[in-house]
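seq:
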Amino acid sequence: MSKGNNASNIVILGAGSIGCYLGGCLLAGNPELSSSLTFIGRERLQNDISKNGLTLTDWQGRDVFVDSAVVNFSVTNDALASADFILLCVKSQDTQEAATLIQAHANPNAVIVSFQNGVTNGDVLAKTLSQKVIKGMVPFNVFYEGKGHFHCGTEGNLAIEDKDGTCGSLLEKFNKALLHVTVYDDITAVQYGKLIMNLNNAVNALSGIPLKQQLGNRAYRLVMAKVLKEALHVFKAHGITVARTGKVIPKLMPTIMVLPNTLFQIVAASTLKIDPQARSSMYEDLALGRRTEIDFLNGEIERLGRLSGISTPVNSKIVALVKDAERKKKGSPMLLPAQLM
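struct:
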């Protein structure tokens, strides 16, 4: 694909909460995309959006509606053949399967942008695909409220690794959609910064309560402090640099987490913007009886710890608890802090 491609055809592959939110915002800000943006996802969401359209809200007051008549939602992979940009939003455990689909169906000149959690997806894609792969990062949380309503409950700019300027026209469309994107030459440290933030996803899912309520409880924060200390320890052992993805410096997070509630609320007011409605995507996965990304989040800390001979008992316990909840398919087990340690 040549530099400055006009992004005439965009496909959201794996249109779940993040994919529907990104695609919906793109449509709302760029009406001309109504005939050239395709969502590929589950039949359940296709039926819901066909009936209700897309409602997109966020913690800052975004509230837009996209009529179902202009939403092209498919449960087949046919649109991949003509895609100029494929925004990949599948769960990390589905990355290899998605790469195989792209390899079989996509335009060889398409650009693949991985808007996924975890730190390994870009490398997995690059090993399988001949197409150009762009690593990306979504800093915010999106929760599916039902009836076509997707709510973004936390702050942050999207990020991509695009030192060659391949995504220029796509970035213009994101900016018109008021989804601002920070561009990096190397996004690795940013991805590890996001991984640090994502380690709370499992704690939130296991607690069964909204993010703001969970982080407002010092007992849960004491669990998070131990989770973060283990992660930072194994990162140091592997020489991994962790960049801040918001206003909080990663190495200070364990200290912030153990602050008394009054002090924590003061710090959080200026550094952690969280909507009272926000929950982690892992909570939603448990509620729907789906596999989670735990192996690519806290499980990645456990894996790195094993490689360096460092014990990670709290992250390992959380991985085991999430997998137990997956097997039971009864949603969040609503565990108390002491049960997570």
